[in-house]
Amino acid sequence: RTAIHFLDDVIEKTEYFYPENAESQKKTRRIGLGTMGLADTLIKLKIRYGASEAINFCEKLYAFIRDEAYKASIALAKSKGVFSNYDREKYSQGKFIESLPQEIKEEIAKYGIRNAVLLTQAPTGTTGLLAGVSSGIEPVYDFAVIRRDRLGEHEILHPLYEQYLNEHPGDK
């Protein structure tokens, strides 16, 4: 819920270069709550990525994230208003909106919603590196990679692998 509030506030605080961009963004208030670190979470839970147990876990996790995101945007609609292009009838006919739990659909019908779009699964490679977690929703493909960038070429160890090597120095 905090992330939804933050992302919605970013819309107001952003200094748009073109007035048309500001107008377009404020008409829909599109935000994109996404994911980093899913593979790390599964590793820490000792669940193999792609296993049926992982699929079940992810279905519950992402249903929770979806529901909390929509509840937060509904709460924002109550306090700050709906996005200006909101059309209750059209919005409720969206395929994704139709798939939401009944209680959330009823809340949207009653109060509206602050943001036209809430969720995304954008690539988070560099951001994941900076945060020290696996990127996006992908598995960890390699625990040691060579990265080439403007600073040159260097080996990057996945943080969980690096932690393992520190705890088991002879295992590299």
Summary, kept brief:
With 172 residues, this protein is mostly helical. It contains 9 helices and 2 strands; from the N terminus they run ααααααααββα.
What features would you describe in this structure?
With 172 residues, this protein is mainly α. It has nine helices and two strands; from the N terminus they run ααααααααββα. It has helices spanning 2-13, 19-28, 38-44, 52-80, 88-92, 95-98, 102-111, 125-131, 159-167; strands spanning 144-149, 152-157. The longest helix is centred in the middle third of the chain and has 29 residues, at 52-80. The mean pLDDT is 94.
Q: What order do the helices and strands follow? A: HHHHHHHHEEH
Fraction of residues in helix: 40-55%
Q: N- to C-terminal separation?
A: 41 Å
Total of DSSP H or I helical runs spanning 4+ residues: 9
Major beta-sheet overview:
2 strands, antiparallel
Given helix and strand content, the structural type is mainly alpha
Radius of gyration from CA coordinates: 20 Å
- Low-confidence stretches are none
- Sheet-strand content, in percent, reads 5-15%
What oligomeric arrangement do these chains adopt? single chain
Q: Strand tally, please?
A: 2
What strand line-up does the widest sheet have? Answer: 1-2
Shape: globular
Task: Outline the fold blueprint.
Elements: H1 2-13, H2 19-28, H3 38-44, H4 52-80, H5 88-92, H6 95-98, H7 102-111, H8 125-131, E1 144-149, E2 152-157, H9 159-167
Antiparallel strand pairs: 1-2
Descriptive terms for the model:
172 residues; two-stranded antiparallel sheet; 2 strands
